[in-house]
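I have been asked to look over a protein record a colleague put together. Alongside the sequence sits a line of tokens, each denoting a local backbone shape. I have pasted the whole thing underneath without changing anything:
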Amino acid sequence: MAKLSKAKRGKNRWIGITVSNPSIIRSEMSNLLESGLQGISWKLFDFYEHGNQKLAIIRTKLEDASKARKIINSIEGLSTTTTSGKIRLVRERLTR
């Protein structure tokens, strides 16, 4: 069976998040997103410290991206910084 062409595959959007709480750990971040992003398909990919701030990158479906950004920005201590269709670009923008 042939693979789906790139145009027919599902489109993703990568969202870069800045976390203001420096003591939060990955499992707490995942629980926080899980409670806020109910009904939206997402996955936490990166969660790391850069300088004195914590950064995270999640993947969502393209059609859910704008709704996910609004919800994330409404959660206290989280703010979206950048989005892209390529995780490499989000990683570069977060660490600048």
About this structure: The mean pLDDT is 93. The chain has one domain: 10-94. Residues 59 and 93 are 16 Å apart (CA to CA). DSSP finds three helices and four strands in the chain.
